[in-house]
Amino acid sequence: MRYNQFFAELTAAGCYVLRHGANHDIWYSPKTGNKFALSRHGKQEVPTGMERKARKVLLGE
């Protein structure tokens, strides 16, 4: 999955960006109350481990 697709999925789930860093965005999930840093690489693929960890932390999967 590409970063842009993943960001759209997170947004649809109710997550939002708390702040923009130099290379990463800090995402917040009101559902779980957790924050997670995700890098911004647009059209590149999200590494599988990072996607899995973000889903676990932000979406509670």
UniProtKB/TrEMBL annotation:
Transmembrane segments: none annotated. One of its GO terms (molecular function) is hydrolase activity. This is Type II toxin-antitoxin system HicA family toxin.
